[in-house]
Structure to design on (66 residues):
């Protein structure tokens, strides 16, 4: 299925959860903030929130530095 991920079309298997998407993107070891269709999805819900065809996902990781 296709979703819109950070402004670009992204292909992911049907039934993918946010946690699985984060894993697919190799970001599992990073802190991530996720918004789906302009609604924040808390980390506690990443494993149960199933993405749907056409969802708009904004995924932001934190970057440290100085």
């Amino acid at each position: 299925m296709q979703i819109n991920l950070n402004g670009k079309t992204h292909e992911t298997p049907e039934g993918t959860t946010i946690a699985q998407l984060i894993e697919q993107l190799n970001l599992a070891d990073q802190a991530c903030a996720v918004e789906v269709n302009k609604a924040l999805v808390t980390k506690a819900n990443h494993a149960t929130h199933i993405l749907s065809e056409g969802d708009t996902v904004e995924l932001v990781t934190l970057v440290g530095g100085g």
Q: What stands out?
A: The first helix runs from residue 18 to 24. Strands lie at 2-5, 8-11, 32-36, 39-41, 56-61. The chain has one domain: 2-61. The mean pLDDT is 95.
